[in-house]
Write a structure and sequence with these properties.
single chain, alpha+beta, Endonuclease III, domain 1, four-stranded antiparallel β-sheet
């Protein structure tokens, strides 16, 4: 079955996406009905990855995206500019969560699959993935592809040789969704100990500090993420950390560690004393 404009619109569930007609003038959030009249719309909700969008920066972008001889998955749609360059999108059957409740492994897998598509299509590695060409806008020449919703595993199995085995270790070396993963991981790990210094200042100050840290890390990327994405990620991490890392909880952990350490110490002392007595008995026999 072929994807259609109507079916895509039904699956685009964002209620207040960012959108614009002119990238040079910036973007702003607006009601869904108005946003879908703009040339560019937010590709994914802040909390979820619902589609992988690849920026094919070549004049033969449509051919590359639809060429079946190379085994690359059929896109859900290809929105092509008058110059021939295009965005190819692959809609996901199960959205991938990227909030404070997210598991890192699905996020990493999504980033690897996206990187595999970029490799296979020789696409733009600097594409941030925040905005996409609105496929139902008449400024673009949209070719509708498959109506199939993909799992990440289904996409991965069609990218043999293109799928990277792992993401770059350095934040600056990541691109696409890899930047989201790297930023989320850095901010998350930093926040576990960082929050202790701001317990007396309250959650508002802690949220501002977390956002400042996230924005600083974001500048390490060759192509930084959109500031609104960074702000959302920072809010998500700061709220989760404030909720789950409390002074009371920290005190309980320290007390438990001390208790276990004391028990271990007493056990060690008793064992040492027993060994001394055993050696003395052996010497008496001799």
């Amino acid at each position: 079955m072929t994807m259609t404009a109507t079916r895509w619109t039904e699956r685009y569930r964002q209620t207040w996406p960012s959108a614009t007609d002119d990238l040079s003038k910036g973007t702003y959030r607006q009601p869904r009905a108005l946003a879908l009249q703009r040339r560019y719309v937010q590709a994914n909700p802040s909390a979820l990855i619902t589609q992988l969008v690849i920026d094919i920066d070549h004049e033969d972008a449509l051919y590359r995206a639809l060429d079946r001889t190379n085994g690359i998955p059929m896109p859900s749609y290809v929105a092509q500019s008058p110059a021939g360059k295009a965005h190819a999108a692959y809609l996901l059957k199960a959205p991938v969560c990227r909030t404070d409740n997210a598991r890192l492994e699905p996020m990493r897998f999504a980033a690897r699959v996206e990187a595999g598509l970029v490799n296979a299509l020789d696409a733009d590695r600097g594409y941030a993935g925040f905005l996409t060409k609105n496929p139902i806008h008449d400024h673009w020449d949209t070719v509708w592809g498959t109506d199939q919703l993909y799992t990440l595993k289904e996409l991965a199995t069609q990218l043999p040789g293109w799928l990277p085995r792992s993401l770059p270790r350095k934040a600056a070396d990541n691109s696409g969704l890899g930047r989201n993963v790297a930023l989320f991981n850095r901010v998350r790990l930093w926040s576990y100990s960082g929050v202790r210094r701001y317990w007396s200042d309250g959650p508002t100050v802690w949220g501002e500090v977390t956002e400042a840290y996230a924005l600083a890390v974001n500048q390490e990327f060759a192509v930084p993420l959109d500031s609104s994405e960074v702000a959302h990620l920072a809010r998500s991490v700061s709220r989760w950390t404030w909720r789950n890392f409390t002074p009371e909880g920290f005190s309980r952990v320290q007390t438990e560690r001390g208790r276990k350490g004391g028990a271990t110490g007493k056990g060690s002392q008793a064992a040492a004393a027993k060994r001394t007595i055993d050696r003395a008995r052996i010497l008496e026999v001799l």
